[in-house]
Amino acid sequence: MKIKTGIDIIEIDRVKESIESTEGKFCERVYTEKEIEYCESKKAQKYQHYAARFAGKEAVVKAISSTLKNKYEISWKEIEILNDETGKPYVKLPEENTKEIEDIDISISHCKQYAVANVVILYK
Ligand SMILES: CC(C)(COP(=O)(O)OP(=O)(O)OC[C@H]1O[C@@H](n2cnc3c(N)ncnc32)[C@H](O)[C@@H]1OP(=O)(O)O)[C@@H](O)C(=O)NCCC(=O)NCCS
Q1: What is the pLDDT of residues 32-75, one digit of tens each?
Q2: Is there a catalytic annotation at residue 34?
Q3: Which end of the chain has fewer CB atoms within 10 angstroms, the N or the C?
Q4: Ligand 1 centroid to 114 CA: how many Å?
Q5: Ligand 1 pocket, 74 CB below 6 A?
Q6: C-alpha span between 91 and 56 (Å, rounded)
Q7: Tens digit of each residue's pLDDT (9 = 90 or more) over 69-100
Q8: Residues ≥6 apart with Cβ < 8 Å to 9
Q9: SS3 state at 58
Q10: Residue 110 is a catalytic residue
Q11: What's the gap between Cα 92 and its chain centre?
Q12: What is the side-by-side order of every strand in the sheet holding 114-123?
């Protein structure tokens, strides 16, 4: 059994700038429909949630990087971060990336300036 972790921190203003300056193209490239729906539902706070998901995707890449043949093997949108009915976030990955994975957990936090995410992967 092997455990891998990944962590990422991001400035919320950088994500806000990327979203606003590309008129939706950044969102289209990085986030799934469900992720966009969730973040947009947060109205004025939405950039905190977009940034948290970006940090989450980066943290997932760090945690699975040793199992990828190359960094282009997985795209941002293939790493989906959703929330269960209690609000707890979870990660959805393409089937081909989960064959060796027993469990994956993510924790997210954000404040006015920064969003952070921590991912733990338990391999079979
Ligand atoms: C869930 C909770 C811990 C979030 O903490 P917070 O300091 O308000 O906010 P943070 O920025 O640190 O975290 C927000 C993230 O927490 C995560 N979160 C929400 N509910 C969660 C849950 N049930 N379990 C784990 N993570 C959760 C989400 O990922 C959220 O970000 P997202 O909406 O972008 O996905 C808090 O709102 C809460 O409900 N606490 C329980 C309070 C309580 O019951 N206290 C009494 C006992 S101490």
Answers
A1: 999 999 999 999 999 999 999 999 999 999 999 888 777 678 99
A2: no
A3: N
A4: 16
A5: no
A6: 9
A7: 776 789 999 999 999 999 999 999 999 889 89
A8: 55, 114, 115, 116
A9: helix
A10: yes
A11: 10
A12: 2-11, 114-123, 101-110
